[in-house]
């Protein structure tokens, strides 16, 4: 904080409701919450693309009638997409609520974004809930994408190489990314 600031640095930190937390971390939290909302928005687009692919009686590219997905796969796709959307919406609303609380607790001065007095436990659990919503949304999005692959390329039970390879790559890459994300969230939560 520069010398021209009307708030002395020592008096501000002595009145901080969250002891041991630097006031500049508020902007880091807001940035993290913005990131969650932005990523969830991107995934929500994927949900609606998946919903557009849920057409009944569609032929797969496998050219065997026995490999065509039935109505049950299309129904599962629809259910997984709706559940995925619900988790992403939950996550985004929690993140937006936390951002709103931080911004309302700040003064009207734009430069005071670093001065919000917030309950650190509420912020941490809110961010954890938002992250958990994003993870669960990703899990159900992967399940729905597997259904999209089965509708387009043929059922996994048919053993189509394209289907098996696509599902394998999807599950491995997304699982790896979720493992890194979950590890990072828990590390940040515990430290």
UniProtKB/TrEMBL annotation:
The chain crosses the membrane at residues 36-56, 77-102, 122-146, 167-190. It comes from the Eukaryota. Keywords: Membrane, Transmembrane, Transmembrane helix. The keyword Transmembrane helix applies. This is Maternal effect embryo arrest protein.
């Amino acid at each position: 904080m520069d010398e021209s600031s009307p708030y002395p640095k020592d008096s501000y930190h002595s009145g901080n409701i969250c002891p041991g937390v630097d006031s500049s971390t508020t902007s880091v939290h807001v940035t993290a919450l913005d990131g969650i909302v932005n990523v969830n928005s991107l995934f929500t687009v994927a949900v609606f693309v998946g919903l557009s692919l849920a057409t009944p009686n569609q032929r797969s590219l496998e050219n065997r009638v026995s490999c065509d997905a039935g109505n049950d796969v299309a129904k599962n796709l629809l259910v997984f997409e709706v559940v995925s959307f619900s988790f992403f919406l939950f996550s985004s609303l929690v993140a937006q609520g936390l951002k709103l609380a931080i911004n309302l607790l700040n003064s009207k001065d734009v430069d005071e974004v670093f001065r919000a007095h917030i309950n650190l436990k509420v912020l941490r659990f809110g961010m954890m809930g938002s992250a958990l919503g994003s993870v669960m949304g990703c899990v159900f999005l992967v399940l729905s994408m597997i259904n999209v692959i089965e509708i387009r390329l043929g059922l996994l039970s048919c053993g189509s190489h394209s289907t098996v390879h696509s599902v394998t790559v999807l599950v491995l890459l997304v699982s790896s990314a979720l493992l890194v994300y979950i590890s990072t969230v828990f590390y940040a939560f515990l430290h």
